[in-house]
Specification:
- By secondary structure, the protein is an alpha+beta fold.
- It has one domain: Cytochrome P450 (Cytochrome p450, Orthogonal Bundle), CATH 1.10.630.10.
- It is 47% helix and 12% strand.
- It is built from 16 helices and eleven strands.
- Strand 10 and strand 11 form a beta hairpin.
- It starts with 14 loop residues before the first strand and ends with a strand.
- Belongs to the cytochrome P450 family.
- Keywords: Iron, Metal-binding.
- InterPro entries: Cyt_P450, Cyt_P450_E_grp-IV, Cyt_P450_sf.
């Protein structure tokens, strides 16, 4: 932890007015949207306002704004102290705020408001979340062997692609691996043996894009910025554009997840609603999350260089040898491997935004001041700023593989926010933390284990893409001392 100051605010902090403004109706939101996407860019948009107001809590408008969101006004919380208010469902309502100030049509999800859009106070939330957690618990014995099988195919494909073209786009193969794993986990069926064939991941990609288009930019030349803004951020894209693909996904899950849907009925959930929720859990939550997390993990580990690679390989190989295989016990002993995964989640969390609507008047605190929030105010958190808070983390912009090793490092885990909660918290049926949080951490560790059981080192080039990072593998050096 940074020694320059404490991360715990004083209860005696002065209450100050929240700085910032929303500008004129419509025009203020439109200007902020152009600044956010095209003039300043996402991170600089927040940096500039923190500097302007000398505060990590301020008022602003968040995209998409007019005409898609009736009220784009938010109170932004961008430090490690104020951010966790968004996890407290006794203080904030989570109804229809997964994507922020707008709510995609339920036509994307078979006419149902799925669990991710429900507030825990809504009766259906507890039954659906309990159903998810029960299914994951029943599948836990499949996690390691099934994902290792999928990873074996991934690395074979990467090697073939590098041999053929001199490099391999990790994202393409990682997306396919994630989809194959998730479908086989929930449906016990290879997706290529269904009507989807090998197109399942691409179907999910189109489905995700149409829902998340209001929050992204394609990075087109400046001359096309206004056209893109009109097409992506002004009116919602119609679900009919992906209706055929979604129906194929739904039918595949419905036809091959019989035991899972049987479980849903035990929780009083009809099979149709359960299946639409299962598709969302697999496609939006799980596939969408790994689609951004796995390339980010490979990017940051690849950039860290051969010294860290050697240390990871030594730890992984020695533990696997001592344990006689890749087991939960073995994974738990790999302290550096665990730390590297947490560091990737800290520096580039797979979901960068959190939203919640204040249930009552309240006071929130940053490091330096307290602020009054009014009932009904939308609170917005930009996670990468909270998890790179310089008052908590030394060298917050640097990827430090050993950051969470040892007693002091473990104390910092409560500031790793990435799953709609703290890393030290657990998902329950009553909170909004991702039900697959522990599975995501496990799969990320397995990704590193399989990588360094096979290779001594690798090189990577990375760039920004629509939903995170793109990692291109330039070389893979086969392991020499297994």
């Amino acid at each position: 932890m940074s020694s320059s100051s404490s991360s715990s605010p004083s209860s005696e902090l002065p209450v100050k007015p929240i700085p910032g403004d929303y500008g004129l109706p419509f025009l203020g939101a439109f200007k902020d949207r152009l600044d956010y996407f095209y003039i300043e860019g996402r991170d600089q948009f927040f940096h500039n306002r923190v500097a302007k107001y000398n505060s990590t809590v301020f008022k602003t408008n968040m995209p998409p704004g007019p005409f898609m969101a009736s009220n784009p006004r938010v109170v932004a919380v961008l430090d490690a102290v104020s951010f966790p208010v968004l996890f407290d469902t006794s203080k904030v309502e989570k109804r229809n705020v997964l994507d922020g100030t707008f709510f995609p049509s339920v036509n994307f999800t078979g006419g149902y408001r799925v669990c991710a859009y429900l507030d825990p106070s809504e009766p259906n939330h507890t039954s659906l979340k309990s159903f998810f957690m029960s299914v994951l618990a029943s599948k836990h014995h499949n996690f390691i062997p099934l994902f290792r099988t999928c990873l074996s195919d991934l690395f074979i494909d990467l090697e073939d692609e590098i041999a053929k073209n001199g490099e391999a786009n990790f994202n393409t193969f990682s997306d396919q691996t994630s989809f194959n794993f998730l479908f086989r986990l929930f449906c016990d069926k290879n997706p290529v043996d269904t009507k989807m064939g090998s197109k399942g991941s691409k179907m999910f990609d189109k489905w995700l894009f149409l829902q998340l288009a209001p929050l992204i930019t394609l990075g087109l030349p400046k001359i096309l910025n206004l056209l893109e803004d009109f097409l992506l951020h002004t009116f919602p894209l119609p679900s009919v554009l992906v209706k055929s693909d979604y129906n194929k996904l739904y039918e595949a899950f419905y036809n091959f997840s019989g035991s899972v849907l049987d479980e849903a009925e035990k929780f009083g959930i009809n099979r149709e609603e359960a299946c639409h929720n299962l598709v969302f859990l697999a496609g939006f939550n799980a596939y969408g999350g790994t689609k951004t997390l796995f390339p980010a993990l490979i990017k940051w580990v690849g950039r860290a260089g051969e010294k860290l690679h050697r240390q990871l390989a030594d730890e992984i190989r020695s533990v696997v040898k001592a344990e006689g295989g890749v087991t939960l016990s073995a994974l738990d002993q790999m302290v550096l491997t665990k730390s590297v995964v947490y560091e990737a989640l800290r520096i580039e969390p797979p979901v960068p935004f959190q939203y919640g609507k204040a249930k009552a008047d309240m006071v929130i605190q940053s490091h330096d001041a307290a602020f009054e929030i009014k009932k009904g105010d939308m609170i917005f958190g930009y996670q990468p700023f909270a998890t790179k808070d310089p008052r908590v983390f030394d060298s917050p912009e640097d990827f430090v593989g050993h950051r969470f090793v040892g007693e002091q490092g473990e104390k910092l885990l409560k500031y790793v926010y990435w799953s709609n909660g703290r890393e030290t918290d657990d998902p329950t049926a009553e909170n909004k933390q991702c039900p697959g949080k522990d599975l995501v951490v496990l799969l990320s560790r397995l990704m590193l284990v399989e990588l360094f059981l096979r290779y001594d080192t690798f090189t990577v080039e990375a760039r920004r893409v629509l939903l995170g990072s793109s990692a291109t593998i330039k070389s893979l050096t086969k392991a020499t001392n297994i």
